[in-house]
């Protein structure tokens, strides 16, 4: 059972405020959600996997909640993802029913067998359309929503705006945790750079704002300190590391205004949230990811698997909690696989713990970067480009995706940068496509990615 089964318990309380100002009660939202799965074209067989092409609107949200209420397993997909990438996902996983903003669409794909606890599938990278999915259960969703509502102290007086896409685990966690407590969601598809976004913030008396590092960097540039938002009480940040200077700036601004600024850490594999920094400790713990969320446990593992227990000793960050996924899926056959994690997640991040028990991420074990709230698999980007006959090696860091190309003209390099920007929905300034004579290689014939990054994009040149 999840929060979705109990929507009607909040009755006439306002669940949603639509972009045109219309208010939708919890009772009405429950009816809308249920109607999606009795509409023409909806699947009739129990537990048939469906996909929802998501936008931040009533139709997508109702389809998601209706799936949870009807025990229909669902894959959330960015409606703006390139059509070939969407279709490749549907074909790979045998998804014959797709809910779009216009209604249901069907195909002839054979529905796959599913683990009985699978409720939600999320891509490990919403921007590349990576075929690897995270399998989440109703218990995962409920546990994470409860933990988030607990440490944020959410109640029915909250009004959160949809500043993040719902197909993204952080954006979805905002939705889940607020609906859990009977709060109000102010729906918008406007970006933070739009005047209409801030007008909606003021007019709808929004109390909570969520953002990823790129959004907070934009707010700083837009002189956020001059923006009058009398109803705003809480700001939250996740989706990658926020630079220390911005953590301090927003922490100090929030303190001056009597607001709360939460720096948080999570992964899709943990249904979004793993750790947070309590606002009253933020300014003394700049750079930390904080402590485990309620009901969870963080620990560090050495290379030999033993626990790293000394203050400031580095190890792989591991998390235990009821919000840990069932496991990954890379093929349709994986969807019926067992619970591979048993509530325990090795994050792939290196971290240390200080003497107060606060954790700090110091590096990564795996080839992923987080940009604009999306996790980018550099191996996946490289594979896609090589399949298109580009001789490339892909590396990067959290503020920059670097593509080194052998044997390409300056015009071809710029053309490729534009393609990458559009395909993966990254700002052009966050992409560096460079021509190289050769890639640095190891004795085993593998690309030395760290050396390549240092050669073509040293951090000081960021």
Automatic annotation (TrEMBL):
Spell out the InterPro entries in the cross-references.
AMP-dep_synth/lig_dom (IPR000873), ANL_N_sf (IPR042099)
Q: What is the lineage of its organism?
A: Bacteria, Pseudomonadati, Pseudomonadota, Betaproteobacteria, Burkholderiales
What organism, scientifically named, is this protein from? Answer: Cupriavidus oxalaticus
Q: Which family does it belong to?
A: Belongs to the ATP-dependent AMP-binding enzyme family.
Ligase as UniProt keyword: yes
Top-rank taxon:
Bacteria
This protein is called what? AMP-dependent synthetase
Task: Output one GO BP term.
Answer: fatty acid metabolic process
Q: Which GO terms describe its molecular function?
A: medium-chain fatty acid-CoA ligase activity
Which keywords does this chain's UniProt record carry?
Ligase
Which Pfam families does the record match to this protein?
A: AMP-binding
The residue ranges of the AMP-dependent synthetase/ligase domain are 111-328
